[in-house]
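Problem 3 from the worked examples.
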Amino acid sequence: MHPENAKASRTPSGELPPLELLRSFEAAARQLSFTLAAGELHLTQSAVSRQIQQLEASLGVLLFERRHRALALTEAGGVLQRAVTDSLERLRDATARVRASAAPRQVAITTTPGFASLWLIPKLARFTGTHPQVDVRVSATLDVLDLDVSRLDLAVRFAPIGRGVGPALFEESVIPLCSPQLAASLRELSDFSRLTLLTVEYPDHSEAPTADWEPWLKVMGLQDLRMKSTLRFTQYADAVAAAVAGQGVVIGRLPLLRELVRDGRLVAPLGEGAASHRGYFIEMSRRAASNRDAQDFAQWLRDEAEAAQRT
């Protein structure tokens, strides 16, 4: 194409060429090949060549030097390439920001069923009240889920002190708890043998039906304690519900059950508890580093734990 022919069909000054022509030009200028640009844009080589000719005609200037089996940018082509490349990058960045702002905000957490039902869920409205735009997804399970594989932001893990990963939320103490009516029948430690033991079966303690009682029994020197009968549950919250209903004595995990004790629905007939040397720890996933809401949620957990300990 001769320059004089290009000038004859020139686009009015200030009017932008069609975007599809600029996209084809950017690909051809970057690849210095109409054939490679055509493959990238899913067009034919002749279609890209025609678009470049149309762009040159609209600008009234040659953008490429057509050499034997090679392309080279003219001075005008270099100027346009820099401008088009910069503009397309700005468009890509703006598009990514718009998409990110439109994406739903979510915090995904995994923890034990007992922690979820007895400590987290009763307090959760305080977080959602201050973060109404954030969806919270709670996966309550005894399975130790891989945070990154399961696309989770954080976990509250129950682990022995010294083996927990991440900041400690709080340490646990244990103490037998029962309903006020049942507590009235207890005068001394030996009276425990007349009551029903409420216990939880854990997958890794199938041969130890009192695994949840062991820390307290050890401190009290009662490893051989025998109760009138035993009710076993697969979920700790169910054992707690049975204790509230007056069906027996449950090992109380504090501070998980602190509000039930404060409300008088459960009482500690034998006084102080014992440290279980276990606690709850906040473990963050790699994806949480880019999720400000997940970081806010972790801080909220710490604030709630500190507030509970003060009261």
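Problem 4, a separate protein:
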Amino acid sequence: MKIACVGGGPAGLYFSLLMKRQDPSHDITVHERDPAGSTYGWGVTYWAGLLDALRAHDPESARAIGENSVRWSGGAAHIRGGTTVHDGDEGFGIARRRLLDVLTERAAELGVRLEFGHAVTDPGQVADADLVVAADGVHSGLRDRHADHFGTEVTAGRNMYIWLGTTKVFDTFTFAFAETPHGWIWCYAYGYGEDRSTCVVECPPATWRGLGLDRAGEAEGLALLEELFAGPLDGHRLLGRGRTGGSARWLTFRTVTNRTWHRDNLVLMGDAAHTTHYSVGAGTTLALEDAMALAGALRDSPALRPALVRYERARTSALLPVQSAARYSAQWYENLPRYVNLPPAQMFALLGQRHSPLLPYVPPQLYYRIDRAAARLEPLRRLKRRLGPRLAGALHGLGR
């Protein structure tokens, strides 16, 4: 096949190299609108299950990704001068730029043609391709040309957020909550290199405006945030320049969904097809899993349309629990006052339960007691898993 992959992010690059591995005779070009090396962002996070899947699909790139990642374990929450620690969860962080470099180098090694500084917004620009993969992100131009067909819906979240870096190296996934005269502001931070961490800061619009962050220049805004999170940052700086020639901006998160993911020989992948709130840390993993699924569907089906149908069905089904978890996670932070006055250990426990569909409908302290009891009693744990989503659905219907 002749394949045009539009977008040089993790999804597009990984799909291109997987297709070359399957059949070196494929003619594959990745079209990336930005110059080489001008990626945005700091570090991305993933879990061990993804590394296992990458090893199964392409051991060479998996090895390079693993070698360039740092491992962190457990979690810590800072609030009102105290720190609550949770052992257990283990994850990995890698610089987004390094991840893209690894995938770019591997794709080129396999014979993929890479065209940087080449924007493709119209399928007519790649009319000779047998397959056009729209991996061009949340603002996908290829998708938006046929938004009615795809059934694209974009929903803006309520809170403001900014994606920053820091010279503080966190060895655990860290949350920090700061109370201000204008309301609460908080951050999530995790390490991704020997001298860097990612730090995502979030707050309600009223807090953002009240603190003057809507009017502050970059240096002024970073100085204020460094003061608010001085304890967790331990005197380290926040870094705002996540993209060459630009600066970090405050945004609202855009949740993208599509009714269908393909049209003729055009198929959506990664953020062009779906987004999940950053608080669940799944974006990069889902993009790479999309690439695996589409490559697998094309390998197993000799005809294009059945392969695209199979890919769409598999991925939309796999995404359902992740999208649900992301939706409830975003709502937990949007309703932070409901939880912030709990004892810190209880608050942190419910932070870990923020994906639960039942939590928004049960008084927080009661939910905490039920959850602690369920952790000790297997029958109660099974009952909570089975009845929780049904009860949450019924309560949601009554609340309409």
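Solution to problem 4. The chain has 14 helices and 15 strands. Confidence is low (pLDDT under 50) at residues 392-400.
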